[in-house]
Amino acid sequence: MKTNKILMIILFLVSLHSFAQPPMSEKKEQIRAMKVGFITNELSLTTDEAAKFWPIYNAFDDKQFELRHQKMKTFKSKMADDALDKMSEKEASALLAQMESNDDELYQIRKKFIANLQGVLSPIKIIKLRKAEDDFNRKLLQQYRNKGPKK
To answer: Whose C-alpha in 40, 117, 118, 141 is 20 to 30 A from the C-alpha of 21?
Structure first.
């Protein structure tokens, strides 16, 4: 769940900073290329493992990104301060249920992803993958902080 939150923060920060940067699609591809290199190195993937792993990972990552993007878009207007103050209890309950449903769907996608990886990578490499994703997200966030406006 920490990875999900970190990724959402990174995506939010990158989108805020994107007005002075190349288009988001270019940024997303740059980040993806960095991520591929980082994960491949951290997991010490063989050529055979990489050929099987990356299509599974990319499909998972795309679906996960799509769900998070959809969630952020849906909740953005509802989470504004003035909208929260005007929200009824019934609307708040519906929003909470929607948030839980989205989180459950993300969990189910990750669970299926791990099951799909078990035929491709060893359990140790699957655990290392989770650590590599967390490390990459921290590294990316740190790079963003270092390039941010100086105070």
So the answer is: 40
